[in-house]
Amino acid sequence: MHEAFKNTLPPGQKIDLSNCDREPIHIPGHIQAHGLLLAVDRSSHVILQASNNALEYLGVPSDLLLGKSLATLLGTEQLSLLQSVLRSEPQEDNPVYLFTALVLGSGPFHVIGHLHDGLLILEFEPKLPDTPRHPDFYELLKRSLARFQAAQTVREFCQMVTEEIRRVSGYDRVMVYQFQEDWSGHVIAEDMAQDMGLESYLDLHYPASDIPSQARALFLLNTVRMLADAQYKPAWMIPERNPITAKPLDMSYTFLRGASQMYTEYLINMGVRASLTLAISQGDKLWGLVACHHYSPRKIPYDVRTACEVLARVISLQVADKVRNEESNYRVRMDEVHQCLLQAVGRDGHLGTALIECQPGVREFVECEGAAVLAEGECHLLGQTPSEAQVRALAAWLSRTHEGELFVTDRLPELYPPAADLKAIACGVMALPISRAQAEYILWFRPEVIQTVKWAGDPRKPVEVGPLGDRLTPRKSFALWKETVEGHSLPWRKGEQEGTLRLRTALTDALYHRSEALSRLNQELSRSNQELDAFAYVASHDLKEPLRGIYNYATFLSEDYAEKLDPEGLQKLSTLLRLTRRMQSLIDSLLHFSRLGKAPLRLEQFPAGEAVQEALEQVELRLKETGTSVEIPRPLPTIKADRVGITEVFTNLLSNALKYNDKPVRTVEVGYLDAGEPGFPSQAQGAPFCFYVKDNGIGIPERFQEEIFRIFKRLHARTEFGGGTGAGLTIVKKVVERHGGTIWLSSREGEGTTFFFTLSRT
């Protein structure tokens, strides 16, 4: 190992992979032997350093060049040309071709120069005798660009790249090597000589240590890197440290820079003798490499290397364009679904229903096998998903543990152990919160995808201890090594995540506008209800007096003149009395209903069982007449509510249960369910308890189940099942809603009915 690297490690520190990442490959202290390098003072043009192979190329020992002026080496005419080019070109950290000329009668040489650290660094590469003329490369680039533009996908484009670069450069094998998030590499395209019996590297993966971080950084500075012979003899710099900077010469931007010993050993272990590498970047990030391998020494002419450098820049632009196009096409599809969803939300009053029924809808928004929408107390499932209970439990966990705008994972069981048995349908989850407080989410699910990743050698052994003692060397085995990756779904694309966040913003806006509209409507309804309540109160109060007069006069007639009336007259008088009594009952119910909306709730803590007992006392006579048994499986919880109102709720529900029953054995059950208890209804989400009154009576046909809560609505003739005004369930609904609760029922005709209700203010 070169002295420069040894000195970077503290004494006694063991060399490991992190040390390899710190290897100073930009200051190797030597160059490759197929050229000559000089470091010159940029002001005086005095030669300060030279590679030790000047005798081979110029016939002059390198140490004799030190301290001499460039004019001695190039002549005044070439020096003037050099100065002119350097003045006109942006040469700081940017190597530029200066000229091709004889030097001390030797050559000709291609001369490339750049400025760095106050130095003029000159590289001299012998001009190869069979270098093609420039126009040939213009035609080559024109053809390559035409092919590149026809590619539709990134992989199709990269395959074209390998074919064109191999045709231009003549290397035995050309690959496109794409970096993954962890900086491991994946060969996504390959072209190679078919007559050499080479084994394909296509789809192989390479560990991140194969191209360490400092090497990746250099590729961003110098996009083309050629190694003419992995077994070259280094040409060391004389002196080792620059006299002006007192540091080893920084060769980050040079073409002749010596290769890392780790890299040359790596290539030799692969059986490769020469390489050419072109960087593919997106902005300031390295996307991948075009890696060219040759199985014998290969030195390509400067002109060809220049063409490859131009191609590398074109490739970078084209890759970025193809990636953008793929993401754009996907985003267009997402936007179409996006608009459909927003229109559906605008039309429909229920968010969950709108998102589910829209076509294309939530499931089509991203690539997934299933989706779920938890909204407004309801859970809607689409495609392959966990059960409703499992989805609700996952949403509850998310609301407790994750506060970000979007939850994304491709390995849910690692984060949420209860999902260990759900890998086949929900290994990957993307969850968009609608209301974290209410555990309302849109969730997308992806199944586990068991992948076999093919590595070029065991990735767990990227380096080995070499023969020089405590020093790591590149692995020698590149035999196919397969790794089975389990517990992961396909990853969620960046575009999918961005599109989902845009959907969240749009849904928030849509819900806000709908909320404003509902708020205005509620204000209007509240005002109308107040006016209706006032009208009902006044009307019922004012109607009672004349109705009482009619009833009294009809009673007087019956008592004083009954003997003077014939049977028909007595029948009409009896009907008059019956109708006035019914009218009186209706007015009393209307008056009571109107007062419900005006009187404030008197909230107090009391056991709900006390309200049930009071209700049972009020229907006690009816219980005895019908022989109905009432069961209360367990004590009811303590609630905070209006005692009179809750007693009335139980009284009306018990009265209905007793009234609408024609079974020989009649039963009623009054009970409750705790939140989180098995069987807890989805309609009760958010409430601590759900009460129920269950009977085995006549049941209610499904077509009438929404109508029974309308005031004065009866499903039977007035003479059937004991009559009644039809206001009881309307009063029950109003009391429950004033407590912030909900009431609903489950019934089968002929099998009985169960009324459920919640009291959110408890």
UniProtKB/TrEMBL annotation:
GO molecular function, one term: protein kinase activator activity
Protein name (Swiss-Prot/TrEMBL): histidine kinase
Domain of life: Bacteria
Family: In the N-terminal section; belongs to the phytochrome family.
SUPFAM superfamilies according to UniProt: ATPase domain of HSP90 chaperone/DNA topoisomerase II/histidine kinase (SSF55874), GAF domain-like (SSF55781), Homodimeric domain of signal transducing histidine kinase (SSF47384), PYP-like sensor domain (PAS domain) (SSF55785)
Keyword vocabulary terms for this entry: Chromophore, Kinase, Phosphoprotein, Photoreceptor protein, Receptor, Sensory transduction, Transferase
Limits of the Phytochrome chromophore attachment site domain: 153-313
Record-linked Pfam families: GAF, HATPase_c, HisKA, PAS_2, PHY
GO terms of biological process kind: detection of visible light; osmosensory signaling via phosphorelay pathway; regulation of DNA-templated transcription
Domain Histidine kinase: start-end pairs: 538-762
Provenance organism: Hyalangium minutum
Catalyzed chemical reaction(s): ATP + protein L-histidine = ADP + protein N-phospho-L-histidine
EC category: transferase
InterPro entries xref list: BphY/WalK/GraS-like, GAF, GAF-like_dom_sf, HATPase_C_sf, HATPase_dom, His_kinase_dom, HisK_dim/P_dom, HisK_dim/P_sf
EC number: 2.7.13.3
